[in-house]
Design brief:
- The protein is an alpha+beta fold and 1014 residues long.
- 51% of the residues lie in helices and 15% in strands.
- The strands form 4 sheets. Strands 10, 11, 14, 15, 16, 17, 18, 19 and 20 form a 9-stranded mixed beta sheet that branches. Strands 8-26-25-24-9-21-23-22 form an 8-stranded mixed beta sheet, sandwiched between helices. Strands 1, 2, 3, 4, 5, 6 and 7 form a 7-stranded antiparallel beta sheet that branches.
- Strand 1 and strand 2 form a beta hairpin.
- Helix 10 packs parallel to helix 27, helix 11 packs antiparallel against helix 27 and helix 13 crosses helix 27.
- The longest helix is centred in the last third of the chain and has 42 residues.
- The protein starts with 24 loop residues before the first helix and ends with a helix.
Length: 1014
């Protein structure tokens, strides 16, 4: 089929979205979905007609006040997907109620309520007794309602919190052309017709047509399943196989360019896919899975105990009746059996630790919300708890350890002409010399201005700043100080080809046409790389000379001198060409036969607090390694200053590391502290070697090439300010301030989450064991087969130990004590030795106390067994609850050696509030809840006695903590991760190595001296 691509098929007579546009959002969306370039060209015509259809100027972009912004949004929509309908509170209530145990309790309570009402109104009920048959069934129903309401409200609030986190996670800024100037714009503000600038690492925020650029290649695997990199061709390309469509959600892997957006929001390719998959999936974390398995095992034991109790009590009841020989009415037998069933179901309710998953969720929800305030945006929920047990951190240098605010500090341009910004005389001398060589200075300025993607814009304070790569910003700021206007140079230059920064060559190149048939290539990059590919240099007189061995050694000394001062060294070079160079197979420009202009040293000061953070990591048992693309001398200088490189540690370059065998790498990695001049795969290799030795690795990254390493690491940290979208998408946690200190905060909160869940687990298992044994034993020995703790009382205890305890124990803010212990092994038991001691010890104590009160309470408290039975049962119930309240304080500290359970308790306000609420509720239940809870008001003395007995949990807990290890149990539960290399051992090995070297030198000197004498 032939057609004239300049004659569009879509005309105003066919589809008129409104008075301003001749094309609709649906038609543009369908063209993208078809992915047919021929059809696209037939429909939209040439580039000029595309711009006319969308009412946009290709050179100016959209205007902020173009007068049709509202019509544009009405016609094409906004780049925001419709909000996911939030689950209503009623839906949460239904989900919380969708529990077999609660349904069983409801059925039992309805039966109990029906029988109770029937006994009160339809049978021979004694006239002098109040009609209270409805009380127990109603109380159980109310207790079920409280459990459901509490769970539903908690889930509702949690969902709202995570929705806020997701909204913040999806927001980001991109570079667009507005009013003829590049500026940053939120992806949510993008419109159809927007001219979007493309750079490596970007995730394309909306469907677009690629208009112009250099070597743009995209990864569309997440959208189409196509694993190969897709090379893009401009819309103007005549190739029949040209792919000019940029799909939203795809990643720019290489190249630069600009495109025009044609579909946004739910009309875009990514938006349609997201709308079709809108189902919420709950993130299951490793800790949750462990706890779910534990909860299932405990539930099975509880269910078995309940069945045993049902069988035993029923059998006992009928045996007692048969021995007495006096059988009651069928109504009485049914009522008694229902009572036994209710007690049995209640045992199951108490035994099933349904609060465990809730504790993890609450701990994570609380931690992630607080972490966001401390500049950690958690993208993957499991990363929070995983980070708590990290044993190794591999970090970048630039922007993470340093401030990423770079300035040109020193330079040698050209040969033998140096300047130092700290020495005004050297600057004056350099300016004087270079002033006589205008052509050379212009060449340097042209190369920096043209061979750069940074640009001048405004920050949030409306101040003029350079935006882009910090290295490029430093170079542009420097030539601005020299009096050159980078934007003027760019406008006057005819750029032919741009080769963006390539990891292989660690450089960026731009080819410009100087005059007809004459071209010049400007290259900048890692100084050693640039020096290796130069054959000539410019001397101090501005003349081009051959780069001989003496000159090479001189330049190497310059580079080494700058690097030893922790300066990043950048080489500047150029090459004159007679024709446009041919690309290599990988699409990159071959670097050869260049002329070296000089080397500049860029400084990037260490962030405040980094040295302290590294020291804190060391105390916490976390080994810090620096992996950077910088020169080995620069990397070592920064590593020593920050405390990363220590005595006995190893610093090496990426090429050295790559040349080793796998076995050699495994041996070297434990002591490796600095890896300089690292390539894109070095981080992945280091992570792999560490994980092979059971290390939990945290990795930082900001570039597109860091994506695989971030994905592979146990916890990947990307940079929120300077990181590419590819890096952010591959990461688990985004550092909003790009600060190394924020990683320490993540470690702290990760340990707090793990500790919070373990505290709750210790508390709940203690209550489970004590409540089940007390209920079972008391019911078995009772004449009427009744537990000393009623079903309603046990449900209240269940509420205390589930929701309220999770709220109190799982949300404690972290303190620095957490950083004074070693990380826990990934294979460690969920319940450690200290926890096991506390659970067993406290459970035995509570069972003994309650059974003693049950069987000897009348004698101990001088009560009348005939009239004071309700008083004793109330005192037992009150004692049991206060044992849990004080044991909850006891469970605030579960780690070995922590004897002060009141440490920092005043800072944990939520814990104090929960405790106060429980105590007040218990008072009202005992004093005014007689009908439902079968309690009677207690005297002040009885309150003092029961609270005092409960207080005994604290001294008992103290003695349990100081109990020694028996039969090597603690060794069996040992949970500390085994370090690959300890700092103390490395220090001694380094000292021994120094002594050996000195002895070797002395022996050589002595040998030389002996030879001379002979």
């Amino acid at each position: 089929m032939s057609f004239d691509e300049r004659q569009p098929l879509l005309t105003r007579n066919q589809t008129i979205a409104n008075s301003a546009f001749d094309v609709s959002a649906e038609e543009l969306s369908s063209l993208v979905e078809a992915k047919d370039v021929d059809k696209l060209r037939a429909a939209l015509g040439d580039t000029n007609h595309v711009c006319k259809l969308l009412n946009v100027d290709l050179l100016q972009g959209l205007a902020d006040d173009d007068g049709i912004a509202i019509q544009r949004k009405q016609a094409f929509g906004t780049n925001v997907l419709p909000e996911v309908p939030k689950k209503t509170l009623i839906r949460h209530l239904l989900e919380a109620y969708n529990d077999k145990t609660l349904i069983m309790l409801t059925i039992a309570s309805v039966i109990s309520l029906s029988i109770g009402i029937w006994k009160d109104y339809f049978s021979a009920h004694p006239a002098d007794e109040p009609k209270l048959g409805w009380v127990e069934g109603t109380a159980i129903l109310l207790a079920v309602l409280v459990v459901v309401l509490t769970g539903a409200i908690n889930n509702y609030q949690k969902e709202s919190q995570f929705q806020q986190l997701n909204n913040k996670r999806e927001d980001r800024v991109v570079n667009v052309l507005r009013g003829g100037r590049e500026r940053e714009l939120s992806v949510f503000e993008l419109q159809v017709g927007e001219i979007l600038m493309l750079a490596p690492g970007d995730i394309i925020p909306a469907d677009a047509i690629y208009l112009d650029g250099h070597n743009v290649a995209c990864d569309e695997s997440s959208l189409t399943g196509e694993s190969n990199t897709i090379k893009k061709r401009p819309y103007t390309s005549k190739s029949t196989r040209a792919d000019c469509l940029l799909l939203s959600g795809s990643k720019v892997l290489e190249g630069m360019g600009k495109c025009v957006i044609i579909a946004v929001g739910e009309h875009s390719f990514y938006g349609k896919m997201m709308m079709s998959m809108r189902e919420q999936h709950t993130e299951g974390t490793p800790l949750q899975l462990k706890l779910d398995n534990l909860a299932e095992q405990i539930a099975k034991i509880g269910f078995a105990a309940a069945l045993l109790m049902l069988f035993t009590l029923t059998l006992k009841y009928f045996i007692v009746l048969s021995i007495r020989g006096a059988w009651p009415s069928g109504e009485t037998i049914a009522s008694t059996i229902i009572g036994i069933v209710i007690q049995t179901i209640t045992i199951i309710v108490v035994a099933v630790p349904e609060g465990l998953p809730m504790a993890v969720t609450m701990a994570l929800a609380f931690a992630t919300t607080q972490m966001l305030k401390e500049n950690n945006l958690v993208r993957v929920l499991s990363a929070c708890e995983t980070m708590g047990n990290a044993t190794a951190i591999c970090t970048d240098k630039t922007g993470t350890l340093t401030e990423n605010v770079m300035t040109v500090e020193q330079g040698t341009l050209p040969f033998a002409l140096s300047f130092n910004r700290q020495e005004s005389e050297s600057i004056d001398h350099w300016n004087e010399k270079l002033g006589a060589m205008d052509d050379l200075l212009s060449t340097i300025a042209d190369g920096i201005a043209v061979n750069s993607t940074a640009y001048e814009g405004e920050n949030e304070r409306d101040e003029a700043v350079f935006i882009g790569s910090k290295t490029e910003c430093a170079l542009l700021s420097w030539i601005k100080l020299l009096g050159y206007d980078y934007s003027k140079i760019r406008k006057e230059s005819s750029v032919v080809q741009v080769y963006p920064f390539a990891s292989k060559w660690k450089s960026m190149s731009t080819v410009v046409e100087v005059k007809s048939g004459f071209y010049r290539q400007f290259t900048k990059g890692a100084s050693e790389m640039i020096l290796d590919h130069c054959t000539h240099y410019i001397d101090q007189d501005g003349n081009q000379r051959e780069l001989d061995q003496d000159a090479i050694e001189t330049w190497q000394r310059v580079i080494s001198n700058y690097a030893s001062q922790a300066l990043r060294t950048i080489g500047l070079a150029y090459k004159d060409l007679d024709s446009i160079p041919n690309d290599q197979d990988d699409g990159q420009l071959p670097l050869e036969n260049m002329v070296l202009l000089g080397v500049v040293g860029i400084t990037d000061p260490l962030r405040p607090g980094v040295a302290e953070a590294v020291k804190a990591f060391r105390k916490a048992g976390v080994f810090v390694r620096m992996i950077t693309g910088d020169n080995i001398d620069t990397a070592k200088a920064i590593a020593r200053t920050s405390g990363i490189l220590t005595k006995g540690g190893i610093a090496m370059s990426g090429p050295e590391f790559r040349s080793m065998s796998v076995e050699e790498q495994r041996k070297i990695v434990p002591r490796l502290q600095v890896l300089a001049r690292s390539g894109p795969l070095d981080k992945t290799v280091v992570v792999t070697r560490l994980q092979e030795q059971d290390q939990v690795v945290g990795m930082t990254g900001d570039g597109t090439n860091d994506g695989p390493a971030l994905k592979l690491a146990d916890v990947g940290f990307s940079m929120g300010l300077t990181g590419t979208e590819v890096a952010k998408e591959a990461s688990d946690i985004v550092l909003m301030d790009d600060n190394f200190n924020s990683i320490l905060k993540a470690l702290l909160w990760g340990r707090a989450v793990n500790d919070g869940v373990r505290k709750f687990l210790t508390f709940q298992l203690t209550v489970n064991v004590a409540a089940v044994i007390v209920s079972f034993t008391s019911a078995l020995t009772s004449d009427d087969a009744e537990s000393v703790l009623t079903a309603v009382q046990l449900l209240w205890v269940n509420l205390i130990m589930d929701t309220l305890a999770a709220l109190a124990l799982a949300t404690e803010p972290p303190d620095d004590e957490l950083l004074r212990r070693k990380p826990i092994s990934r294979y460690a038991h969920l319940v450690n030795f200290s926890m096991m001691k506390m659970i067993i010890g406290q459970a035995i104590f509570q069972v003994i106390v309650n059974l003693t009160l049950l069987y000897a309470g009348y004698a101990i408290f001088d009560l009348d067994p005939v009239y004071d039975e309700p008083v004793l049962r109330t005192m037992i119930f009150n004692t049991f609850v206060f044992l849990q309240i004080f044991n909850e304080i006891n469970c605030r500290r579960i780690d070995k050696g922590s004897l002060n359970v009141f440490q920092n308790i005043i800072h944990h306000k939520l814990f104090l509030v929960v405790q106060l609420v429980v105590v007040l509720c218990q008072y009202f239940i005992v004093t005014f809840g007689g009908l439902a809870f079968k309690t009677v008001p207690l005297s002040l003395a009885q309150w003092g006695i029961t609270v005092g007995i409960g207080f005994l949990s604290l001294p008992v807990g103290f003695f349990i903590r100081i109990l020694p290890d028996c039969f090597g149990c603690e060794r069996h539960f040992n949970e500390e991760a085994i370090p690959l290399a300890s700092y103390s051992r490395m220090h001694w090995e380094g000292a021994i190595g120094d002594i050996r070297r000195e002895i070797r030198i002395l022996s050589l000197l002595r040998r030389n001296s002996d030879i001379r004498r002979q």
